[in-house]
Amino acid sequence: MNEDDARTARRFDPKRLFEGRFAGHGATLGIEYHNHGADWAELALPYAQKLIGAPATGVIASGPILALMDMATSVAVWLKLDLFKPHATLDLRIDYLRPARAGRTVIGRGECYRITRSVAFVRGQAHDGDPDNPVANVAATFMAVEGYR
Amino acid sequence: MTIPPYAELLGLSIEPGEHAPTLVMPFAMDVVGRPGFLHGGAIGGLLEMAAITALEQALATQGGGRFKPIGLTVDYMRGGRDKPTYARGTVIRLGTRVANVEAIAWQDDPDNPIASARTNYLIAR
């Protein structure tokens, strides 16, 4: 099976999740699907005036990057489960390694490395063009009220 | 106080306070995650804005200064429902180079927060 067939054989399709969405915080921020694998997802946050936190420099606020990473890591959990389960962020730590450059699209990559009965453990990084020069690093946990399995 | 475009996106208004302002975020589609609940990213963004405005007010009493965020840890305690959300920051320590700031977000009762954050800033005076 090639990679595309392997993807379509799966039940949870993050691309469809983002194509079918029309409103909400993610849509307002302009967050889009970018790429995914078996336990990871990449979402894109294109640069926009409404995201600016520092008008003097045009640098976007840190809040949209936090939201991007919250969503990318959340989608990574559903990919590892291969199933959509309602869950909520329990905690999220983000280190801001450097400001994202004005005008650049920020790519957020989330990875789920462990799922227990009720808690999913995730990590991720955001970059603005070069994955080896990240703008933020994230570690977070999610909890499924009715359990993951 | 003029607010940046991102704060406008969140719909924030600012109520002045003795030690730090209180920010108010109305419930709107722009900040919703799963249907009927606030998005965790919007709650995190609100907490960051509360921490930043608290630090700006504390720095202003010392002649001002610029600062950059180093990191932030958010604990999510309950879902944000269809009602206004309030947030306020507390400067725990304002050093010469680093500030430690906490913030809480609540809906009905500040003693019953929906989320809290601890955050550190690098200061350039």
TrEMBL record, chain A:
Keywords: Hydrolase. GO terms for molecular function: 1,4-dihydroxy-2-naphthoyl-CoA thioesterase activity. PANTHER family: 1,4-DIHYDROXY-2-NAPHTHOYL-COA THIOESTERASE 1, BLR7284 PROTEIN. InterPro entries: HotDog_dom_sf (IPR029069), PAAI_dom (IPR003736), Thioestr_dom (IPR006683). Residues 58-132 form the Thioesterase domain. The keyword Hydrolase applies. This is Uncharacterized protein (TIGR00369 family). One of its GO terms (cellular component) is cytosol. It holds the Pfam family 4HBT. NCBIfam families: unchar_dom_1. It comes from the Bacteria.
TrEMBL record, chain B:
Residues 36-111 form the Thioesterase domain. InterPro entries: HotDog_dom_sf, PAAI_dom, Thioestr_dom. Keywords: Hydrolase. It holds the Pfam family 4HBT. SUPFAM superfamilies: Thioesterase/thiol ester dehydrase-isomerase (SSF54637). Gene3D superfamilies: Hotdog Thioesterase (3.10.129.10). This is Uncharacterized protein (TIGR00369 family). It comes from Sphingomonas xinjiangensis. The lineage of its organism: Bacteria, Pseudomonadati, Pseudomonadota, Alphaproteobacteria, Sphingomonadales.
